């Protein structure tokens, strides 16, 4: 392929928005849960100047040889009605409420039990029980204790996700 063709090829791939190793992740959760902090930690950015998200943020991060396009959608009540709009072609969803969405068939679910650096944080096991995760039969799921602020547990969660995608493709 010549340079011009390569350039065109990469533009087409970008327009298609998805190559084999490029995945789309949607991060959902209540306001103040720490989604934007998590996203910034994943992207190795400063987490000290974050304000509530009024719409959404998108960042691309590369991990485990995969390009992850992560959508971080504001969790305030008035924004939650728009969540479903973001769910087409999604490779990962965080949040149980939308589990039966047709667009999310077979999508693995990773739940971050965030803020574990706080003494008052609920343990992951309690959250798993509260969300009835054991009743989910149609999605692979995992709960990961983490602190988006310190980064602890964040990479473990992403490793699980990347492995589950790789295993699905086998
Ligand atoms: N102690 C502690 N605080 C955290 C952690 N993650 C986020 N926070 C704090 O929680 C607050 C809310 O974090 P955000 O990342 O803005 O939360 P969000 O889920 O994006 O909120 P919305 O955009 O409103 O949906 C901020 O003050 C963060 O510093 C964590 O792991 N530990
Ligand atoms: Mg936010």
From TrEMBL:
Major localization class: cytoplasm
Entry annotated with the keyword Magnesium: yes
Localisation per UniProt entry: Cytoplasm, Cytoskeleton, Microtubule organizing center, Centrosome
Pfam families registered for this protein in UniProt: Arf
GO molecular function: GTP binding; GTPase activity; metal ion binding
Homology family: Belongs to the small GTPase superfamily. Arf family.
PROSITE patterns: ARF
UniProt key word ATP-binding: no
Binding of GTP, residues: 29-36, 75, 114-117
Family matches, as SUPFAM superfamilies: P-loop containing nucleoside triphosphate hydrolases
Record key words, sorted: GTP-binding, Lipoprotein, Magnesium, Metal-binding, Myristate, Nucleotide-binding
Protein name stated in the entry: ADP-ribosylation factor-like protein 3
Residues noted as binding Mg(2+) in the record, renumbered to the chain: 36, 53
GO CC terms in record: centrosome
